[in-house]
């Protein structure tokens, strides 16, 4: 996405859209065919075996395995030499490893389910767009590349986008940057450096940012 390196007019021209009229019905269909629907791609998650293997590879778990086998070896040597062996200690370490791996796998599974639930929730959100010269309400998933999106105070941004007009515009980017202070936006800024970080692109909105302030 290089829209932050071009002026708003250039972005509109490149996408074949009009600031006042928006896209036509035919353009909407063509854009959806070309770029797809506005939803996260569903990728098959890792298998249970892969998640367990990933948990076992954690540095702390590896150290626990080393400690467990060293302790087991020492106690076996004591046992066969007639000394005092304490296998309970070895068992405790292996139980700790098992619990740690189980917790890791369960937490990863919950994160995947939470992401899927959020994605389903977002599909039911309605968004204001300008199409064929009229403001229309469409589902979040039906926003296409080239749409002119209208946002109001408290709205969530439904997709990454180039600002066309702004006045005293701020957005909450805490999800992106962790900063609680609203960030000022300016539609007139154009960057020459393509390496500008996502958080510094003040002429752009990013998916699911909160919007505050005024915008044209």
Written overview of the protein:
It is built from 6 helices and 8 strands; from the N terminus they run H-H-H-H-H-E-E-E-E-E-H-E-E-E. Helices cover 42% and strands 15% of the residues. The two termini are 23 Å apart. It has helices at residues 8-15, 25-35, 48-56, 59-80, 87-122, 174-177, and strands at 126-131, 134-139, 148-150, 161-162, 167-172, 183-185, 204-205, 210-214. Helix 3 (48-56) packs across helix 5 (87-122) and helix 4 (59-80) packs antiparallel against helix 5 (87-122). It is elongated, with a radius of gyration of 27 Å. The strands form 3 sheets. It has a 3-stranded antiparallel sheet with strand order 2-1-3, with no helix packed on it. Strands 6-5-8 form a 3-stranded antiparallel sheet, with no helix packed on it. The longest helix has 36 residues, at 87-122. The relative contact order is 0.16. Residues 209-216 have low confidence and may be disordered. It folds into 2 domains: 3-39 and 123-214, Calcium-transporting ATPase, cytoplasmic transduction domain A (Distorted Sandwich), CATH 2.70.150; 48-121.
Quick structural summary:
With 216 residues, this protein is an alpha+beta fold.
Write the layout of secondary structure elements.
Blueprint: H1 8-15, H2 25-35, H3 48-56, H4 59-80, H5 87-122, E1 126-131, E2 134-139, E3 148-150, E4 161-162, E5 167-172, H6 174-177, E6 183-185, E7 204-205, E8 210-214
Antiparallel strand pairs: 1-2, 1-3, 4-7, 5-6, 5-8
